[in-house]
């Protein structure tokens, strides 16, 4: 555990670039429709594209206000919550992260952050900018954090906020959250959970887990275009925000202003991103039609098929076995294999994009998303076939990926 009194911002943990050097840099790429097996964004359903073509109306048009209300109700369904304050912020997932910490923390407060990867570190950087007392509970990348350690840290430091990443996209680990919400309520602390790569792909019952603020991004398992951050806020967290001693340090990210923009008063805060909301609403309708539990089963199935194929190739998974995230599969790049070259084969010859690692794992890890509309049998088989070929082009000598995945599908 590390404790910093009045932490200062230190930009020491940068994304060192995750760019594929493709063999065809000049090929016209803009009108292709690659299969997105990166951990976000995911591919869009045709109905979501169609929604983007809805005739433009103003953000005060009754039809758009009704669409906002329907979107909020559908978000309650995916967050598994009855929170009245459930809406989306008009910016990417990072706005959910930043606003949660900014709104709940005041000068003199302490935040405990479960630190197990790149995105948890981003929370740390935000806390450093806020100048609050920062306590991190750390483990090696690839592991989950023992919840008893987190609760002990909240108790010992009298923390105002416990901030956790549910699915750490940089490591492929799903963090257990059981018991954290109840402990936080007992200790007068607020539980913030990042569900950017998990919402709509893995069960995260916000009310049952007693999460105070949970946020996500539109572009991952929800399969809507990037640019929105769905967020849900408990009544007690909203009360806390509205009774702060000091105003929230950002007008634009003040969550109570956004809550009033989305409630029945629809008090103007910003020009709503009309078409993006229509697209998100359509993506959420598709989730309602599929059903949450069928959707979670689908993500688990394709994740199992993908990992069976990867194992058949003799590849090692990065995340510890008991806590693997279904929606982001992380693979250790074998010794002697050029990770970017393999990804370029997938993109140039199979039209499939997978991601590299982040930070120190940039060239040592592949990250494959199993997310939303991208999570299909055809896409999993295409990815495995492409990866097998890409590896063997570099003399790797593995085989059997497709048969292993097929066996998983045959067992359904
Ligand atoms: C766990 C996690 N948190 C936050 C973010 C930031 O989301 P965005 O890139 O939409 O701002 C990401 C993005 O990948 C993420 O995976």
Tell me what the structure shows.
With 412 residues, the protein is of the alpha/beta class. It has two domains: 24-39 and 291-410, Aspartate Aminotransferase, domain 1 (Alpha-Beta Complex); 48-289, Type I PLP-dependent aspartate aminotransferase-like (Major domain) (Aspartate Aminotransferase, domain 2, 3-Layer(aba) Sandwich), CATH 3.40.640.10. Helices cover 39% and strands 15% of the residues. It has 13 helices and 16 strands. The strands form four sheets. It has an eight-stranded mixed sheet, sandwiched between helices. A four-stranded antiparallel sheet has the order 12-13-16-15, with helices on one face. Strands 2-14 form a two-stranded parallel ribbon. A hairpin with a 4-residue loop joins strand 7 and strand 8 (173-174). Helix 10 runs parallel beside helix 12 and helix 10 (292-312) packs antiparallel against helix 13. The protein is globular, with a radius of gyration of 21 Å. The model has no long low-confidence stretch (mean pLDDT 94).
The strands making up the biggest β-sheet line up spatially as 1-5-4-6-9-10-11-3
Give the CATH topology of the largest domain: Aspartate Aminotransferase, domain 2
User: In total, how many domains does the architecture comprise?
Assistant: 2
By helix and strand content, what is the structural category?
Answer: alpha/beta
Distance between the termini: 44 Å
Helices, by number, come to 13
Largest beta-sheet characterization: 8 strands, mixed
Low-confidence runs of at least 5 consecutive residues: none
- Approximate helicity band: 25-40%
Find the count of extended strands (DSSP E, 2+ residues).
Answer: 16
Give the DSSP E fraction (strand runs of 2 or more residues).
Answer: 5-15%
Ligands in the model, by name, code or SMILES, are: pyridoxal-5'-phosphate
Query: What is the chain-wise order of helices and strands?
Result: EEHHEHEHEHEEEHEEEHHHHEEHEEEHH
Please identify, by name, the CATH architecture of the largest domain: 3-Layer(aba) Sandwich
CATH class of the largest domain: Alpha Beta
What is the CATH homologous superfamily assignment of the largest domain? Type I PLP-dependent aspartate aminotransferase-like (Major domain)
**Overall pLDDT, averaged?**
94
Shape descriptor: globular
Spatial extent as radius of gyration = 21 Å
